[in-house]
Design a protein that fits this description.
Length: 212
């Protein structure tokens, strides 16, 4: 697919991103605490908004790799719980936890629209093939950082895997397996799909400023 000229994100969308960060960040900080921002999905919210504000295709691409499939899984889990009363994976159980304010839980509905926002943005800026590499590095850093959090919170599954709820051994081994799982099962398929269906982000011409 040929490269496309990068188009800026509309001003109204950039303003909405700033407003969303101004509302969402303090609410999440107050209700769930600072450690909550170690979650890969919450890192994705911040970096997506920054990418929208600066029309940065690389940031947007990396967060599309991170968010599209995981948000769809979140949506399926929430819908399953809503219509059956039982958890599918348990990833959205907090949405039914009355210990947290309803208005704070409702902010998590951003998962429904986030894939649409990212795809629409990348149709303008183009998809950067380096997004997969950047997100893989971000996930590695987030997993390592999550090991300093409360083990009972199991942020990013840094202590126990999401299916068997067990550790795969020492911290380096466990983190390595979880990271490979993210990269191979979630990030890589999303990257390959986006590479096929979205226009390629424009590259800067290294000779653009050279002498004639």
């Amino acid at each position: 697919m040929p490269e496309s000229a990068a188009a800026k994100i509309p001003l109204w969308a950039r303003i909405c991103s700033l407003v969303w960060l101004a509302i969402w960040t303090p609410v999440y900080w107050r209700v769930w605490g600072a450690e909550n921002f170690l979650h890969v999905c919450d890192i994705a919210v911040i970096l997506t908004c920054v990418g929208l504000i600066f029309s940065n295709s690389l940031l947007l691409s990396s967060q599309a790799v991170s968010s599209i499939l995981t948000d769809v899984l979140w949506d399926l889990d929430a819908a399953w719980r809503l219509f059956t009363g039982h958890a599918l994976t348990g990833g959205t159980n907090y949405m039914w936890d009355a210990h947290y304010p309803v208005w704070a839980r409702l902010l998590s509905l951003f998962h429904i629209v986030w894939p649409i926002i990212l795809i629409c943005a990348l149709m303008r800026t183009g998809y950067s093939r380096r997004g997969f590499e950047l997100q893989s590095a971000i996930a590695a850093a987030a997993l390592i950082a999550a090991r300093v959090a409360n083990p009972s919170d199991n942020i990013n599954y840094a202590f126990r895997d999401p299916l068997l709820q067990r550790s795969f051994g020492s911290a380096p081994v466990h983190l390595g397996i979880i990271w490979i799982g993210l990269a191979v099962l979630i990030y890589l398929p999303t990257h390959l799909a986006l590479s096929k269906v979205l226009p390629r982000a424009a590259r800067k011409n290294p000779d653009a400023h050279s002498a004639a």
